[in-house]
């Protein structure tokens, strides 16, 4: 499990006591917060630009709300970024995506939303 999955809906644990600059928080449409390592989040070109943009004006923003991304999709996206950071794998190699049931309408919807979110965040 990725760090964000373990903390995402369960709340903050001791790991979150580390320096706030080491982690960023992504907030789903429903208000769930997912904490992910900053280095993993930087694999998203959009998130990286948002972080760099805030630093150029002298502030450090590490909380990013996404009103159009549901909690299940943002959770999978965080897992993907964490896995990609650890292993360098691509979206086509991402096991949770490959394990979705193509016959299930719900899984098809999640896969579509995940791919759209990944495209939107450019990761």
Q: What does this molecule look like?
A:
By secondary structure, the protein is mainly alpha-helical. Helices cover 49% and strands 11% of the residues. Helix 4 packs across helix 6 (105-121). It starts with a helix and ends with a helix.
Labels describing this entry:
123 residues, mainly alpha, three-stranded mixed β-sheet, 11% strand
Structural class: mainly alpha
Spatial separation of the terminal alpha carbons: 19 Å
Count of strand segments = 3
Strand content: 5-15%
What is the succession of H and E elements?
HEEHHEHHH
**Rg, alpha carbons:** 14 Å
Question: Brief overview, please?
Answer:
By secondary structure, this protein is mainly α.
Task: Please give the structural blueprint.
Blueprint: H1 3-8, E1 23-27, E2 33-37, H2 38-41, H3 45-56, E3 63-65, H4 71-87, H5 95-98, H6 105-121
Parallel strand pairs: 1-3
Antiparallel strand pairs: 1-2
């Amino acid at each position: 499990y990725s760090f964000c999955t373990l903390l995402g809906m369960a709340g903050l644990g001791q790991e979150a006591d580390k320096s706030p600059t080491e982690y960023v928080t992504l907030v789903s449409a429903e208000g769930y917060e997912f904490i992910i390592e900053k280095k993993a989040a930087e694999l998203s070109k959009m998130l990286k630009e948002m972080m760099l943009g805030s630093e150029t004006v002298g502030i450090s923003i590490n909380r990013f709300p996404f009103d159009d991304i549901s909690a299940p999709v943002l959770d999978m996206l965080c897992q993907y970024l964490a896995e990609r950071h650890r292993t360098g794998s691509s979206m086509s190699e991402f096991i949770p995506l490959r394990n979705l049931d193509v016959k299930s309408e719900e899984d098809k919807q999640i896969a579509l939303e995940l791919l759209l979110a990944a495209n939107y965040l450019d990761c």
